[in-house]
Amino acid sequence: MKRHSTFPGINEESLYQAAQRFAAFKANRVEAGFAPPVQEGVLIWDEVKVCIFFPTNII
Amino acid sequence: MGFSMSSDDFSSLHDIYEDLDEDEHSQKTTYVIQFLWRDLSSDFDIIGPYFTIPSTMEAKFLHGIVVRTMLAFTQFGFGVRALLSDGASANLSLMKILCGHEDASTSAITPWFTSPYDGTKVHLIVCPSHQVRYLPRW
């Protein structure tokens, strides 16, 4: 998952780890008595502008 | 995660920050597009990939990264039932293209399209919080 946070682009290893994490999450939910999560979701994206400098000495 | 500065960004700190070599073919990053996936039936999130963009972005580049990311998530079992973004013109153009309208001047007939990866409907959602323009003064 760290790979997706520190390098641009799609990383299959990160997604594989997410799949494993979801499998564990699903097992926990089922064990706790909830209905299993459906693994169907919404893909969200947004664009941000890179700001090299921002002021930190705001008084 | 570091982004290079060019010499006109901060001339006084020019020596401290890494300089982007003018001879290199890479361009300075101006924008970052960040993806997230959220399960509809629980609070499970995936902080997805991000992509860096120089100052000019071609529409087909956005189209490419959205469908590639959709494919990647689908391949790993994370179904994509909806796409959500803000109402920026590039995103709206993409939505119109995905709904099958080559001519971007006509509005989409259906706010969904059929996923080429698993054959189910993918709904298009424009984030409502970005649509709020005027707040009434009580």
List keywords for this structure.
heterodimer, A: 59 residues, alpha+beta, 17% strand, B: 138 residues, three-stranded mixed β-sheet, 20% helix
Structural summary, described in words:
The complex is a heterodimer of chains A (59) and B (138). Chain A is 42% helix and 17% strand. Chain A has two helices and one strand, in the order ααβ. Chain A has helices at 2-6, 12-31; one strand spanning 40-49. Chain A starts with a helix and ends in a 10-residue tail after the last strand. The mean pLDDT of chain A is 89. Chain B has helices spanning 59-75, 89-98; strands at 31-39, 45-53, 79-85, 112-114, 121-126. A three-stranded mixed β-sheet of chain B has the order 3-5-4, covered by helices on one side. A two-stranded antiparallel ribbon of chain B has the order 1-2. Chain B is globular, with a radius of gyration of 19 Å. The mean pLDDT of chain B is 80. Strand 1 (40-49) of chain A pairs parallel with strand 3 (79-85) of chain B.
